[in-house]
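Supplementary Methods. Inverse-folding protocol.

Structures were first reduced to a discrete structure-token string of length 255. This string, shown here, constituted the complete conditioning input.
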């Protein structure tokens, strides 16, 4: 392996990915494993995790857990580290979606979305961050969204949560940087997946609108997000912290 490849090598690293059994989480896991990292997939559905691990191979581990159970974060991290070693890469990817007009969104529904995205991610990040600070080494990633940059109708709770990630990234990057811990986010655009297929099924005008405002004129693929995660977690990004990286085919700046 030449020097240019070594800067993207994650051999010896351990990643923990929430929501890692399907979709973007699985896409990121696939790329991290390919780059050499041991990867622990956390999720609530054991069957999905087991299927993912079987595909990913011996460097992938399944760990059933629920990030909304905030008190369980220390146990979750302890279990992950017993299986795969000290966590050096944390990817906060678990999330829920709520499509509903703002005027009809209840307090319970609004709080439920924030519980997963914001409170759950922060509790886990706080626990992993303590350990990273002690070791003076680590990388934390959040899965942000186009909703972190632009107003999208009928997803007010989701937009609030994903916008909060921008503040979390900046605050944690500023506070933890002196301790050797980098904090960034990836903001995926519209990525081809079963979820996107369901969202766009029978809605050709919406699909056309998305493509028309995306300069690359197509949907992305899960591996596009995965390789961005590898970059941000690797030595190649050793001087990158506090950023929200759009991986969107230009959608955030398209017209």
């Amino acid at each position: 392996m030449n020097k240019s490849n070594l800067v993207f090598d994650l051999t010896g690293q351990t990643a923990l990915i929430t929501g890692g059994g399907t979709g973007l989480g699985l896409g990121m896991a696939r790329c991290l494993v390919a780059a050499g990292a041991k990867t622990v997939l956390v999720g609530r559905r054991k069957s999905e995790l087991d299927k993912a691990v079987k595909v990913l191979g011996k460097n992938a581990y399944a760990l059933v857990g629920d990030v909304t159970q905030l008190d369980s974060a220390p146990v979750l991290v302890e279990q992950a580290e017993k299986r795969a070693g000290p966590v050096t890469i944390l990817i906060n990817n678990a999330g829920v979606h709520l499509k509903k007009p703002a005027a009809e969104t209840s307090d319970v529904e609004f709080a439920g979305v924030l519980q997963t995205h914001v409170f759950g991610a922060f509790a886990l990040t706080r626990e992993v961050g303590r350990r990273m600070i002690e070791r003076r080494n680590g990388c934390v990633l959040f899965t942000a969204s186009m909703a972190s940059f632009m107003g999208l109708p009928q997803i007010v709770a989701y937009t609030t949560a994903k916008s909060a990630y921008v503040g979390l990234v900046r605050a944690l990057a500023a506070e933890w940087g002196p301790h050797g811990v980098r904090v960034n986010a990836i903001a995926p655009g519209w990525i081809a997946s079963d979820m996107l297929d369901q969202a766009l099924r029978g809605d050709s005008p919406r699909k056309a609108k998305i493509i028309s405002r995306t300069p690359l004129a197509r949907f992305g693929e899960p591996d596009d997000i995965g390789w961005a995660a590898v970059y941000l977690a690797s030595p190649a990004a050793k001087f990158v912290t506090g950023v929200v990286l759009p991986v969107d085919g230009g959608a955030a700046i398209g017209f």
